[in-house]
Amino acid sequence: MYLDPEEEKILAGENGETRQKMLELLVALGKVFGAERLVRIRSAQISGASYKTIGEYGLAWLSSLDARAVVPAVLNPVGMPRERWKEMGIEPAFAERQQAVIAAYERLGVKLECTCTPYYLHKTSFGDHLAWSESSAVSYANSVIGARTNREGGPGALAAALIGKTPCYGLHLEKNRKPHMIIDVMPDENDWNIARYGALGYHAGKLAGNKIPYFRGISPDTDQLKALGAAMAATGAVAIYHVDNITPEAKKTGYNLSGLEVISIEPAEIDRLFTGIPVDAVAIGCPHCSSDELIGIAKLLKGKTVTKPFYVFAAQGVINKNEKTISAIEKSGARVFADTCMVVSPVMERYTAIMVNSGKALAYVPDMCGAVARIGSIQECVAVATS
Ligand code: F3S
Question: Is 27 in the same domain as 131?
């Protein structure tokens, strides 16, 4: 693998032991995946930030590092809201260890935003190289923005943040971004809302596995693309997909689709995921809500009072930009929390059945929270929570 003179110096230990070790890690990854060189990145998004996942061992490793991020870097959601953890019912012992993990990342120059939607905080453009960890964010970056990132593990993304580069292989290379299969979505009369796109992604991810699908027959907006990609990355390993006439690479590149396998999805295959099971909580914001989603929720909750716990999750930066909207949502008794989510917070384990509007949450809630999951549109979630 080619290293330039500056990289050779780092590898020789001239910029400190941490940066030397981090570059060793990137070079080792590059060799495993056949990278010929490193590529500069615009930003990093780092998983492995929840104390629930990394524990004392991970905290000790982070605390032993001594370097600063050289590109904008944020964290994936952690186990609790940094400010309002008491209000969410987090145990003080957990909060204390979670804060220690966050402080360790802060010392490394990582911005204290814990979100799976870093694209709402840092400008990310077509063709940018990134080192992002969270699968839904990776899918959004590659597919909706046309940026380039592999799905990084936590240590690989942290190393990339501290060095400012990542090995150039996989989805950083144009030749690896072409579609492998076509998914034709058959027309139906249903309202194609965010939840229905999440359900489509839940089903399509199982069909696609780790192939790159090219969708025909759908016209999602950006929030709906976010839901589709997040679910496909959860039930499959889809890190990039294309939608005919919608996503930038499908429009710009004009892929030759002849000879590709074609799979059709019938409305009934999606309909069967929508059940009417009773729930004891509602959670929206997987992935974290956009401003538009928050505004939509506020409108639906206007003049109503929730009778069940109703959680909304979004990035702190997005919450800060929408203060009036957040107040309007919370007036109903619903709560809007930053930094965490329905899957990584231990608080959600107290419920037996949770209603979501997300295909990804439909896939993860049963295993991660030990609860049954029901999917429905935001309108249905509000109706159930206020009935
Ligand atoms: Fe984000 Fe948590 Fe869903 S990290 S994509 S809200 S599982």
Answer: yes
